[in-house]
Amino acid sequence: MEALVSPSTLTGIYRAPASKSAMQRACAAALLRGGVTVLQNPGVSDDDRAALGIIRQLGAQVTEIDGTIRIESAGVQPVGGALHCGESGLSVRMFTPLAALSAEEVTITGAGSLVRRPLDFFDTVLPQLGVSCHSNDGLLPLKVRGPLQPRDVTVDGSLSSQFLTGLLMAYSAAAARNVTVQVEGLNSKPYIDLTLQVLQDFGLKVPRNEQYERFVYDDRDQPPATNELSYPVEGDWSGASFLLVAAALFGSLEIRGLDVFSPQADKAVLQPLMQCGAIMSVRTDAIEVRSGKKLDAFHFNATDCPDLFPPLVALAAYCHGTSVIEGVSRLAHKESNRALTLQEEFGKMGLTIELQDDLMIIRGGGGLKGATVSSRHDHRIAMATAVAALGADGPTTITGAEAVGKSYPDFWRHLQQLGATLSLTDNPRA
Ligand SMILES: O=C(O)C1=C[C@@H](OP(=O)(O)O)[C@@H](O)[C@H](O)C1
Ligand SMILES: C=C(OP(=O)(O)O)C(=O)O
User: NCBIfam families per the record (predicted)?
Assistant: First the structure.
């Protein structure tokens, strides 16, 4: 699919979609806690659908009722011995240790860019926990056979926090006692806060977080969950960050459905927006953002919130001066190698981006030109180029526009509803 986006301004009230990070964790936690959970405001992205499919494959009954999702579970009980993770990095990394709670062999597969994303962590760590694990040289498909036994272990958290999320969920489900997960070089730390928050919300055992270096399970038992749990999935700061940036540059939006106290990493988008001088008012019920001021360059460290690079590149393109975003090394293993993809695709619109070690240096304020760019099958590249296109000197064609489905299938419709001039066609050129 192609999106043709013309220069436009956005106005109105915007409601953020459900966070896929929160939704996928909620699916896992509902499977693990057992009994009945009803998810309110469930996510509808491809990654959310993958997580729902996975918990079915792990034995849960999932029913959609009047815009909610009812999950009934008796714990991890694999059905059919296969897990399909779609293109979701979080799903493969979080659900693999959960599948390994069972004594049955489970084969884990994925699609698209996921088949190139590293999983060596499991080859190293799972055998130390009594799990037999065979990967395709550190890639999918994976075969695991548990049952996983929580033990003291030291793991590497530098490539991705998602492995640790999976491990902590598995330890909590196995009611780990007197064991410690030690982590070296953890990145994307707020995602672990979100994991711990979800464990807490679902009544699962929560380890003590010692400076993101040790996660300590004490000797207490966790009381069994009894009552039905109704869980509202929180709004998505990651998807909304594109609209926050768009409003700061080209319009005026009242953004609702975001929890300003959320542990989500991408809430940090407010910092560079404030630093560059965006006109904003942040309240607990809504965030108002509008354009109208010349924005200045900013310096921001995105090591712990790497998904903010794409929207922040769109922001930096229109900020006057040289903006610097730190944390480039975190982008190598996303849906695309995002540092290079951003450099190449924004380059087509006339933006100069330099990559220097861990720094992305963006020379903004010179205006962008309408061009033909590709999402490179990466949802966040499609959304970032769309935001940038709103201020370009002519129309921009974004090929592979369907990529947004991974996290935010309503993205194009929402942009249109807020006043963007855009059309979608089914041309499959990518
Ligand atoms: O746990 C999560 O929900 C995620 C963690 C982050 O990954 P890393 O920990 O690999 O940085 C983030 O980039 C990804 O989109 C979602
Ligand atoms: C990298 C992402 O997700 P995941 O790692 O879960 O595939 C993302 O949403 O940008």
Answer: aroA
Predicted complex ipTM exceeds 0.95: yes
Residue numbers in the known binding site for 3-phosphoshikimate are 20-21, 25, 160-162, 188, 307, 334
Long-range CB contacts (within 8 A, 24+) of 413-417: 414/14, 414/243, 415/5, 415/10, 415/246, 415/386, 417/12
Confidence of residue 222 (pLDDT cuts 50, 70, 90): confident
Which residues make up each annotated binding site?
20-21, 25, 89, 117, 160-162, 188, 307, 334, 338, 380, 406
Mutate to test the pocket of ligand 1, among 167, 188, 337 (most ligand atoms within 8 A of CB): 188
Q: What CA–CA distance (Å, rounded) separates 298 from 271?
A: 9
Residues 6+ positions from 51 with CB-CB distance below 8 Å = 23, 24, 27, 28, 88, 91, 95
Query: How far, in Å, CA of 215 to CA of 157, rounded?
Result: 12
Mean pLDDT computed over 23-35: 97
Closest C-alpha to ligand 1, atom 12:
307
Residue 88 Cα to ligand 2 middle (Å)? 6
Residue 34 C-alpha to ligand 2 middle, in angstroms?
A: 27
All structural domains of the chain, each given as residue ranges with its CATH number in brackets, are 2-17+235-425 (3.65.10.10), 20-216 (3.65.10.10)
* Interatomic CA distance for residues 332 and 342, integer angstroms: 12
Q: How far apart are CA 69 and CA 232, in angstroms?
A: 11
Q: Residue type at 76? A: V
